Amino acid sequence: MTRQLAMVIDLNKCIGCQTCTLACKSQWSDRDGRQFMYWNHVETTPGQGYPRGWREAGGGWDGDRLKPGRLPRLREDYGFPADFNYDEALFREGDAPLRPTQPMLWGPNWDEDQGSGEFPNGFFFYLPRLCNHCSRPACQAACPRQAIYKRAEDGIVLIDPERCRGYRYCVAACPYKKIYFNPLAERSEKCIFCYPRLEKGIPQACAFQCVGRARHVAWRDDREGAVWKLVEEWKVALPLGPEHGTQPNVFYVPPLSPPPLDAEGRPTDAPRLPEDVLVGLFGPTVKAALARLEAEIARRQAGQPSAMIDLLIAFRHGEMFRLDRPQPKAKGQGEKS
């Protein structure tokens, strides 16, 4: 039976610093046709995201059938890295500004920090995204070459480069558009969940380098781990786009928000972040998750203990990553038959 390694990202602690993005980019995708690839990135929400319009690009499941999806365009939706006039701006006399040498249509973080709403009640939050290493991956089902597989030892979804022929059905089928086509290698590539690091007991680069201590990594069946507690026990960590039916294994603690201000600058009782924005991302259960979070924060502010808040604060960095392999309890050892 496949065991599943999973991640929880607390959106209340993500500050959009892109340290995770740089950690991933510098290690896995900075050259050889991967310049436009961001296996991990952080996008501003609300926003068009990366690639542009990924939420409207289709893919995923409709019951037992794959839903159609479209391929993102390289320059229009990804934004291939442009060349800049470095020689003119940096090494010649004059005051020429640094600018791209060709028109740029889009790129990662193109609409960073724009958000929505009007002053003084504008709103946005940061949404880190990577491959969800789904339990029911649409990309795997769409591949006619059977080049995509889940590792039995940890549930990580990988692409076999020897079998891939670059048909890109997987790119269209992924509702999160986290598979990329490498135009130099002529094959698809994606986040590998840093499995070479994991095999040496080292957490994923994006998680380990997170300065906000926003990412927890543990096995789905580890009842002492953060994933089980936040997803199964307390139910405050939710998958992104559950309606796609892929059963993601990256979960998010949804963001709380300050109250909006009235015409005289006084805070009101409503949340500034509209409920429909969060429901559109995480489904209707986000309402109960936010209520539970608010209740636990109130308990802690009142001087009462809260194991949930202690876990989310992450006092000790090393305790955020449970990469050992605890086996499920046998019947008779605290488990109901």
Q: Summarize this, please?
A:
By secondary structure, the chain is of the alpha+beta class.
Oligomer: single chain
Domain count, please report it.
1
Q: Looking at CATH, which topology would you report?
A: Alpha-Beta Plaits
Number of strands: 12
SSE pattern, N- to C-terminal? EHEEEHHEHEEHEEHHEHEEHHH
Poorly predicted runs: 330-337
Known CATH architecture: 2-Layer Sandwich
What gyration radius follows from the Cα positions, in whole Å? 21 Å
Distance, first to last CA: 19 Å
* Structure annotation, total helices: 11
Largest sheet, spatial ordering of strands:
10-1-12-11
> Which structural class best describes the helix and strand composition?
alpha+beta
